[in-house]
Amino acid sequence: MPRASEAARLDVLCIGNAIVDVVAPVPEDFLTAHATAKGTMRLIDAQAAETLYAAMPPGIESSGGSAANTAAVAAGLGIETGFLGKVAADQLGAVFRHDIVAAGVRYPTPPLADGAPTARCLILVTPDGQRTMNTFLGASVAFSEADLDHDLIGATKILYLEGFLFDPPPAQAAFHAAARIARAAGRKVALSLSDPFCVARHRAAFQALLPTIDMLFANEAEITSLFETSDFNAAATAAREAVPLAVLTRSEHGSFIVQGAEQAMVPAAPAEVVDTTGAGDAFAAGFLAGYCQGRGLAASGWLGSRAAALVIGQYGARPRVDLAGLAVG
Amino acid sequence: MPRASEAARLDVLCIGNAIVDVVAPVPEDFLTAHATAKGTMRLIDAQAAETLYAAMPPGIESSGGSAANTAAVAAGLGIETGFLGKVAADQLGAVFRHDIVAAGVRYPTPPLADGAPTARCLILVTPDGQRTMNTFLGASVAFSEADLDHDLIGATKILYLEGFLFDPPPAQAAFHAAARIARAAGRKVALSLSDPFCVARHRAAFQALLPTIDMLFANEAEITSLFETSDFNAAATAAREAVPLAVLTRSEHGSFIVQGAEQAMVPAAPAEVVDTTGAGDAFAAGFLAGYCQGRGLAASGWLGSRAAALVIGQYGARPRVDLAGLAVG
């Protein structure tokens, strides 16, 4: 029986792969040499990760994961936020846990005791600021229905799920279970499409899922891939018909947000482009924070634009500044 | 018997603590709350590190260690460089090894198999860009004479030792042994004083060491502490008499370099101050690279100033840009 009238304990609960990023600048031809498609995410195994890491320049490590980034930024913007996702009981897992908890996010998932190490994403940043991601999922694949906190999901206004969860089968099962729990409690379910290749891998499943989704987050490459069109406007129209609220980002061209008859076009905020890792995640966080605080579509989108601009101007996916000023701006 | 006439295989071999930095921005009052003296380095044990880490905001991890930073930057500037220092066989140790090898530094020290984890330094960056360091030495304390590569030391033009090596007793013994090997081979020995508190801890030992040192690197706080004076000019005069070559840095006031009757005053290079972690290490690297390439004192110092400016403008101690352009400039 829906219980949406009960007071929610969290504004947003994000579920996704729990990943530590290894970010390094590379020249353009590094991508060609290592056969990785610019601007996208691909999955690699432990051996490929070792080989690629050996070829990479010196980097920095910082906590990542798409939905985890969104949770961290949303918490910084002042809404009550949680995250579910699996790390291992190792040093990088401790780094991930520290960073998300220190960001103010509730993070109840226990670490994986024996098994693969904490997931890492080798992120190659080209001189144009584009990031190309190579993910070794590690312990993330062990996230399963057993890790779902039913009470917490039932007491959260918006359950936010990243599309990347569709890659590991147990996580995909957990995705569906979490969405069922949220719906049964009368809560909203949000989906981020994550990556155009991820959409291509799971297109039919994502399309089948749309009738149960309340909020859809996607960039241009993802939404056009989902609806198999090269025309953004056609994709946006399809999104409007498919979900009650669609938040569509277009990099430096800003975002297009549509909720039934209402819509907003929001510009990108000025940014010096250093590394676009996490820009979409931060945008989603800003939008969710604004939305939960009762702002309109345009104002929520603008908060998203400004949060994205902050992470674009630095290496790493999570802003290293106090976000409280943004939230009241 | 001195063998300096043999061709050297390395220009500079650095020995120091092998550390991964955890860098996070904090407000000024965080330092007061955690009783840590701004701009300095203090040693903490595993328990204190855990407590401080739990209180710290989200951070980034990047390879550090004073002499290791110098080695990485010097290699980027085109001279043949090596590093000796101890990490553990763990994830952060693998990060340290990857980064220094990827920077072009020869790094033959095997990891510590069973024992303390890789050293980490919790670096608190205040809004003025100052860094305050809290070091858990971990596996670094296991560096000992057994880790010295006699042939490599004998075939290196300049052995560069960080003062921080005086903190762990086995490393101090290795320090002395390495210097003896270098001198016996007719090579030069350089010492970086590292930190004013480190100087205060080991002042008598450092003073006793000076007659055997060919090049001394220090900042204003360190050199005045060494000679127990509050007057920089008095300290500089004492340094000129104590060592053949002294390289003294004064933050935004540039550097003063003195070699017998010859001296140079070098300005700081323009920089947007984000995080001063590694500025002194990068300066030393630039100076050493210029010196090994046969530049004069002023030109070598200016290369140091420009290398330091690069790391001051970012979070983390090692520049995330190709340094080849600096070296030919």
CATH architecture of chain A: 3-Layer(aba) Sandwich
Bin the helical content of chain A: 25-40%
Question: Rg of chain A to the nearest angstrom?
Answer: 18 Å
Distance between the termini of chain A: 39 Å
Number of strands of chain A: 13
CATH superfamily of chain A: Ribokinase
What's the topology here?
Two copies of one chain form a homodimer.
Chain A: E1 10-15, E2 19-25, H1 28-33, E3 41-43, H2 46-55, E4 60-64, H3 66-76, E5 81-84, H4 91-102, E6 119-125, E7 131-136, H5 150-154, E8 156-162, H6 169-184, E9 188-192, H7 196-201, H8 203-209, E10 215-219, H9 220-226, H10 232-242, E11 245-249, E12 255-259, E13 262-266, H11 279-292, H12 297-312, H13 324-328
Parallel strand pairs in A: 1-5, 1-8, 2-6, 3-7, 8-9, 9-10, 10-11
Antiparallel strand pairs in A: 2-4, 6-7, 11-12, 12-13
Textual characterization of the structure:
The structure is a homodimer of 329-residue chains. Chain A has 13 helices and 13 strands. Chain A has 329 residues and is an alpha/beta fold. Chain A has a single domain, classed as Ribokinase (UDP-N-acetylmuramoyl-L-alanine:D-glutamate ligase, 3-Layer(aba) Sandwich), CATH 3.40.1190. In chain A, the strands form two sheets. Chain A has an eight-stranded mixed β-sheet, sandwiched between helices. In chain A, helix 3 crosses helix 11. The N and C termini of chain A lie far apart (39 Å). The interface between A and B is medium-sized, with 31 and 31 residues.
